[in-house]
Amino acid sequence: MSGARLQYRVARGKNDEIVDGPDDADVVVSVSLADASLDPSVAFMLGKLKNTGPSGPLFDALSSGEAAATLARLVAQSG
Questions:
Q1: Mean pLDDT throughout 14-43?
Q2: Best exposed site among 13, 27, 29, 65 by fewest CB in 10 Å?
């Protein structure tokens, strides 16, 4: 699914998330702050990084490095 929009959510706690991306995204990627420092591909394989929607766009973001860069920026914002 080319051109899919992704939203990333890093959970700091219950009802406390750092969000990047449109609210009507095709894919929502979620990970806890504690697990966001893992390589995103490894986190996905361990079941720590989860997605709703089609997995193809997530795999594209993982292989291109987009997911890692976005999650690193969100972790830095959590300061």
A1: 96
A2: 13
pLDDT at 78: 81
pLDDT of residue 2: 59
Query: Which residues fall within 8 angstroms of residue 11, CB to CB, at 6 or more apart?
Result: 17, 30, 31, 32, 33
Residue 5 gets which letter from DSSP? -
pTM of the model: 0.91
Cα–Cα dist 43/48, whole Å = 5
Assigned token pair, 55? 């997995």
Tell me the domain boundaries of the chain. Answer: 6-77
- Ranges of beta strands (E only) in the chain are 6-13, 16-20, 27-32, 50-52
